Structure formats: C-alpha cells, structure tokens
C-alpha cells in the first residue's frame, strides 16, 4: 500500500466515503504524493503523450492563434498571456517562437503560467528560460492579474480538473462516493441521501435517464476565474481537450499508466486520472459578456489554422529520414480515431467584442446575447 492510499484510507475511516472529485484532486495534486506533484508524466517513457509533445506544429499554430486574436483585439499594448497546466512548457515555447511573426505581439505579452506541480513548474522554467524578460507562476487561477486584457490557453488542462459523479438509483440521483469495499480496497458506493435540487435540474434537461445512469459535473472554478477577467477586460480563452460535444450520461473516469488503461481506484497518485470534457457544459459558461465558439474538432481547428501547409514546409526542409515522421505526426494530430483529430476538440470563449475567431469558421456560437 502506498503512502497516499494509507492517507485516503484514514480519511475515509474518520470522515466517511469521499466524493469522486475529492479523490481525484488528492490523486492528482496532493502536495506530497499527487501524480503531477511527483513526476513528469509525458512522453514515450512516461504515461501519455500530448499534442505539443507529438509535434512542434501544435504549439506553433496556437502561438499564431494567440497573436492573431491579439491583433483582432486591437493590439493592446499589454496582454496577459496565460497557459493553464503547461506540462513541460513545450507548447508555450513553440507558441512564443511562432508569435514572433506578428510585429509587436511579444512586446505586449506578460506571461502567467497556472501550475500546481512544483516538479513541472521547474521544468517549465528550464524550457522557457531566456524567452521573455519575466514569467509569473500561479498555483491557482484566482491570483491571475485582473487589470488587463487576457488570452488564456489550456491543452489537456480541463480533463485534469476533478469531477463529481452522480448516479440514478430507484428513480433518485445520489452522489457517487469512494469508500472501503468488503475486500478492504477502495470501492464505489452511493451517498444514501438523494440530491433533490440536482435531480430537478437534470430532469429539466437530460431526462429520461435510466436507472444506473451516471452523470458527471466538473468543478470549473479555474476557468470561471479566467472568464470573469476576459469578460471585464477583453480577450479570449482557448481550450483543447478530449471529450464530447454534448452533455450525456456515462462514467468517463479513466486511469492511464505507461500508455495503457489502469484501475482508477488502485495505486492512487501513481496513475494519471482524467474524465472526459463535457464541451456543452463549457459552452454554457458563456454569458452576455463572453461568447463560446465551438467545439470544433481538433482536425478542423488545426486545418483552418493551416497545419497542412505548415507540415509541407517542415517536410521540405527536413532530412529525408524525418519526412515520414512529420507526415505521421500530422496524422496523429488530425486523423480519425485512434488518432486525435476527432476525439479531441477545441472550444474558445471570447469577449463579446470579438465577432469571429481563427479556427472556428462555421462553428456554433453561443452567448453574448445582449449585443447579438
Ligand atoms: N498542457 C500540457 C500538459 C497537460 S497535463 C500538454 O499538453 O502537454 C495537465 C497539466 O495541468 C499538468 O501540467 C498538471 O500539473 C496541470 N494541472 C492539473 N491540475 C491542475 C490545477 N488544478 N491547477 C493548475 N494546474 C493543474
């Protein structure tokens, strides 16, 4: 039994079963034993590989996206550029290099990184060394500046934010909890008290749900803090993640270790835990101040930003043995499943003054009603 398992077990013994969101938060971000707190999980030798780690094209295009949105905002002289969950810092490094093509953009940028993990903060510092005069780190989004326009990006950030799970039993919704099973290991159960308000909310939108159905609701406070700032001072947030376009039922809690599925309730803190992003729930964060664009498939988003032309240029300049690799990377990013092109989606939420955003041509737009 590892140290985190012992700690969670004693929490359950003293306080009763934990909700799924608390369990997930402890596994990922426990200050001593959390998954991200203790390691660099990325790449071939790690547990999973993300788009910026697959190819430089991903970060470059997102850098161009940021620069273009900044221009559409009227090229403000100060821009708070935020990345939430920057991992190794690879995306931001590629983005800043690409952002040089837009005159004045980098001079306006004040970079703020939101990262809970000290190990990854250190790695980001190393990767981004010398690229900008100053970089600020934040353990949480609520300490971000609140006095200037902002562009915020997050790749595979939302999927790491904890979710609550609820399950229907005998016609009633209950919060799903993690307690101790008959064999002494962690086991799922339901809070005996039914959730009346929640049931009514769901009934209005998503019924009929069969008995046994599971619904997930994510804690989106970090994103809400970013959107409040964008609503007040202008700008946009871009979120890329794996998930579904419409809210629905299902248990999507998933553990991954060494590029393979693992058991979410085993070896806490040693396996990555995520749940799929409900993009409809994100789009609902739009208001009269900010509008949501998308989701667009990662494929459509990257194609509209010109990923195919970019890969041709890279291939033309590459050594012969690298040409095939660049083509294979392109397929991984935009190809159909098991590639990322359709499984992953992009959603942007922007101040209502921004009428259109690169990468979202033809995408659904919601919110911003008071001016629409
Ligand atoms: N964007 C990177 C890494 C994705 S993994 C990439 O695409 O490669 C998730 C990242 O979010 C990690 O850097 C992790 O430490 C960070 N993270 C997870 N939960 C967080 C939270 N609540 N607040 C801030 N960062 C968090």
Protein architecture, described:
By secondary structure, the chain is an alpha/beta fold. The chain folds into two domains: 38-160 and 219-366, Rossmann fold; 163-217, no CATH class. It has 14 helices and 17 strands. β11 (254-257) and β12 (260-262) form a beta hairpin. S-adenosyl-L-homocysteine is lined by residues 28-29, 36, 42, 50, 52-53, 85-87, 91, 114-117, 120, 155-157, 160-161, 222.
Query: In what range is the share of β-strand residues?
Result: 15-25%
Please mark out the parts with pLDDT under 50 across 5 or more consecutive residues, or reply none.
Answer: none
CATH class descriptor of the largest domain: Alpha Beta
Find the CATH topology of the largest domain: Rossmann fold
Please provide the count of β strands.
17
Per CATH, the architecture of the largest domain is 3-Layer(aba) Sandwich
Distinct small molecules? S-adenosyl-L-homocysteine
Distance between the termini: 57 Å
Overall tally of structural domains: 2
Major sheet description: 9 strands, mixed
Radius of gyration: 21 Å
Secondary structure tally, helices? 14
Find the structural class using helix and strand composition.
Answer: alpha/beta
């Amino acid at each position: 039994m590892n140290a985190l398992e012992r700690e969670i077990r004693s929490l359950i013994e003293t306080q009763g079963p934990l909700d799924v969101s608390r369990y997930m938060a402890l596994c990922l971000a426990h200050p001593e034993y959390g998954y991200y707190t203790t390691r660099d999980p990325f790449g071939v030798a790690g547990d999973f590989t993300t788009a910026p780690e697959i190819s430089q094209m991903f970060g470059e295009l997102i850098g161009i996206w940021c620069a273009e949105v900044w221009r559409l905002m009227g090229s403000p002289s100060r821009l708070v550029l935020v990345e939430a969950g920057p991992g190794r810092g690879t995306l931001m490094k590629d983005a800043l290099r690409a952002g040089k093509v837009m005159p004045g953009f980098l001079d306006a940028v004040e970079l703020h990184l939101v990262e809970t993990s000290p190990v990854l903060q250190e790695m980001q510092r190393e990767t981004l060394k010398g690229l900008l005069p100053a970089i600020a780190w934040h353990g949480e989004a609520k300490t971000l500046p609140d006095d200037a326009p902002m562009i915020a990006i997050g790749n595979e950030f939302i999927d790491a934010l904890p979710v609550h799970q609820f399950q229907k039993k005998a016609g009633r919704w209950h919060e799903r909890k993690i307690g101790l099973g008959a064999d002494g290991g962690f086991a799922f159960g339901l809070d005996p008290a039914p959730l009346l308000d929640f049931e009514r909310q769901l009934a209005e939108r998503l019924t009929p749900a069969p008995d046994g159905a599971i619904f997930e609701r994510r804690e989106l406070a970090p994103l809400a803090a970013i959107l409040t700032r964008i609503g007040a001072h202008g700008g946009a947030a871009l979120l890329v993640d794996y998930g579904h376009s419409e809210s629905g039922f299902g248990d999507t809690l998933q553990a991954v270790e060494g590029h393979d599925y693992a058991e979410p309730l085993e070896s806490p803190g040693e396996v990555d835990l995520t749940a799929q992003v409900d993009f409809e729930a994100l789009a609902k964060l739009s208001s009269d101040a900010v509008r949501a664009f998308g989701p667009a498939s990662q494929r459509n988003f990257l194609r509209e930003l010109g990923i195919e032309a970019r890969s041709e240029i890279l291939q033309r300049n590459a050594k012969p043995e690298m040409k095939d690799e660049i083509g294979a990377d392109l397929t991984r990013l935009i190809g159909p499943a098991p590639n990322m092109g359709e499984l992953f989606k992009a959603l942007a939420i922007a101040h209502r003054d921004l009428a259109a955003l690169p990468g979202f041509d033809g995408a659904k737009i919601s919110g911003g009603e008071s001016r629409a």
